Amino acid sequence: DHTLSAFLPDEAATLAMGEVLAQALRGGLVIFLQGDLGAGKTTLTRGILRGLGYVGRVKSPTYTLVEPYVVSNLYFHHFDLYRFADQLEWEDAGFREMFNPASVCLVEWPDKAADLLPQPDWTVDLLPQAQGRAFRLVASTPNGAACLATLTA
Ligand code: ADP
Ligand code: MG
């Protein structure tokens, strides 16, 4: 299947989902992470990094726009494009080169740079529901579907 849906009742469930997703990541994967402020995008990213074995602090790259990690033989770029405005900045900061076959790129607020970003392999939506969050992941490329299948098999 090409989708994964779940209800995440609390923060611990979001972290746990991230740890599960971490097991499916391969170099080159591009993940869009959608949802309003406070939806749990950075929390999910924390869970993914934890799942990859990262033990340090995961801060929200609100002002730097991207935070790079090297974990578990992967380069992992965590983007938060909420404050992204300038296309020139994109070129100058070398963001384009960060999307490469050796790197996983996870992007919060992808719609802020829609014209510049490559097609996502996974699109994740987080939506408030009761006291928790509705989680939905859609795989939209063959590579994305293959990675997702390693989880759902
Ligand atoms: P975003 O990056 O989308 O702005 P954050 O992850 O920074 O959101 O913050 C999300 C907030 O919601 C945090 O306070 C976190 O504890 C909480 N949270 C995360 N997941 C859940 C969940 N499944 N249910 C309830 N609260 C959650
Ligand atoms: Mg965030």
What is the count of distinct domains? 1
Distance between the termini: 9 Å
User: What is the level 1 CATH name?
Assistant: Alpha Beta
CATH H-tier superfamily: P-loop containing nucleotide triphosphate hydrolases
Main beta sheet: strand number and arrangement? Answer: 7 strands, mixed
CATH hierarchy: architecture: 3-Layer(aba) Sandwich
Gyration radius, rounded: 14 Å
Strand content: 25-35%
GO cellular component, one term: cytoplasm
GO molecular function: ATP binding; metal ion binding; transferase activity
Organism: Chitinimonas arctica
Protein name: tRNA threonylcarbamoyladenosine biosynthesis protein TsaE
Describe this structure in words.
This is tRNA threonylcarbamoyladenosine biosynthesis protein TsaE. One of its GO terms (cellular component) is cytoplasm. InterPro entries: P-loop_NTPase (IPR027417), T6A_TsaE (IPR003442). The chain is of the alpha/beta class and 153 residues long. It has a single domain, classed as 3-Layer(aba) Sandwich (Rossmann fold), CATH 3.40.50. Helix content is 29%, strand content 30%. Strand 3 and strand 4 (74-80) form a beta hairpin. Helix 1 crosses helix 2. The protein is globular and about 40 Å long.
Please describe the topology of this protein.
Blueprint lengths: L2 E6 L2 H12 L7 E5 L6 H11 L14 E6 L2 E7 L6 H6 L2 H4 L4 E6 L13 E8 L2 E8 L2 H11 L1
Parallel strand pairs: 2-5, 2-6, 4-5
Antiparallel strand pairs: 1-7, 3-4, 6-7
Bound molecules: adenosine-5'-diphosphate and magnesium ion.
The site of magnesium ion has 5 residues, from helix 2.
